[in-house]
Write a structure and sequence with these properties.
Helices cover 57% and strands 5% of the residues. The protein contains 13 helices and four strands. The strands form two sheets. It has a two-stranded parallel sheet. It is extended and about 100 Å long.
Length: 361
């Protein structure tokens, strides 16, 4: 039996399906996860093929998930709808930039409403070229909006007869997960049961913290942002809704009516748990921000003023007190200190100390 492998690329999965139909084993490899030697500076097709064959025989290659033809078709449709949404945002941005350059600022509450469109039709420019350009920008926004609505309607109609339609309905029981969020996550991830545990899913989406540790030093940074960008984006957008107290809105209740009781219970339990986690995390972030009390004018934080450097901060304060006492003794023994003691008693003032330390009571 022959075993084939090739790197994923822009040619799709047609070759994979053809090899599988012939009865052979085939693996589509993630190019970013192929082990490579740092000192290898020669790249040819022959060397790449030999390297992939050796690594595949040793089991060192990471295979990607290959969707079926129906799943791939819906995924292409959802991605086309996302591209249309980006095109609409770009067209609107170009129109707003054009108006801003000429001092035309809309004074209403929300843009892209009926009132805003009426305001656009009332704009007039002295130069004919500017008037034509305004009409072209408005037409581009209208065309992009019509295309987005058409693709959105097509996605809804196609997903209704999809085999993953029950999964889409179950995902929408969660707060912050509407139809487009659910369908984007499903078409990009597929069946989540292919992951052994939630940690693998989060690592696949790049939602785990990065780390660069060695020896006793442990250093963690922001999330890795590896994996699928679209699925990670919709999850982060949905997570923002858990800043507010847990509740079932009328829109969510309408989506829950036709779902099984088990799904509704899981959705409510998850909403309460995620709300508690969000509240705890925000509290820790606020506590960390309160730790940065003493900041310079440029925003930098002294080493001893960080929330995690309590012991170092105490040592800095102790050293400052010792230096203050030492300077006070020197001033007392100097001629300036003797003249000051002849006047009023007590410790030398801040003026005598050169303004470096605070005067003690």
């Amino acid at each position: 039996k022959l075993h084939f492998c090739y790197e994923a690329g822009p040619t799709g999965y047609g070759l994979y399906r053809q090899i599988v139909e012939l009865g052979h084993d085939c693996v589509v490899v993630a190019p970013s996860l192929v082990p490579k030697r740092a000192g290898d500076r020669v790249k040819t097709n022959r060397r790449d093929a030999m390297s992939l064959a050796r690594l595949h025989r040793a089991g060192e290659l990471t295979a990607v998930w290959v969707p079926d033809e129906g799943h791939e078709a819906i995924r292409d449709l959802v991605r086309a709808r996302e591209a249309a949404s980006d095109a609409l945002k770009q067209a609107r941005q170009q129109l707003q930039s054009f108006l801003l350059r000429h001092g035309r600022i809309y004074a209403g509450r929300e843009p892209w409403t009926r009132a805003h469109r009426r305001w656009l039709t009332c704009q007039a420019f002295d130069h004919p070229a500017h008037q034509i350009l305004l009409a072209e920008y408005c037409q581009a926004v209208a065309d992009a909006s019509v295309r987005l609505d058409r693709l959105t309607k097509l996605v809804v109609e196609t997903a209704a007869s999809w085999s993953m339609a029950p999964v889409l309905a179950a995902y929408q029981a969660m707060r912050g997960v509407a139809f487009m969020t659910a369908v984007t996550f499903v078409v990009e991830i597929g069946d989540v049961r292919r992951f052994d545990n939630p940690r693998q899913l989060m690592a696949y989406l790049g939602l785990v913290p990065s780390e660069s540790s060695t020896g006793e030093r442990v250093k963690r940074g922001g999330i890795t942002k590896a994996g699928n960008t679209r699925a990670r984006r919709v999850l982060i957008e949905g997570a923002w809704t858990y800043r507010f107290p847990a509740r079932v809105s009328p829109k969510i209740q309408a989506r829950l009516d036709d779902l099984p009781r088990t799904v509704r219970e899981i959705a409510w339990k998850a909403q309460v748990a995620l709300r508690t986690l969000s509240k705890t995390t925000r509290g820790r972030q606020a506590e960390g921000r309160r730790g940065y009390r003493h900041c310079a004018k440029n925003g930098s934080v002294p080493m001893g003023d960080r929330a995690g450097d309590r012991s170092h901060s105490k040592s800095l304060k102790a050293n400052a007190q010792l230096e203050q006492k030492s300077l006070t003794r020197k001033l007392k023994s100097s001629s300036v200190g003797q003249r000051w003691r002849q006047g009023s008693g007590g410790e030398p003032s801040q003026a005598l100390c050169g303004g470096q330390f605070q005067a003690r009571d």
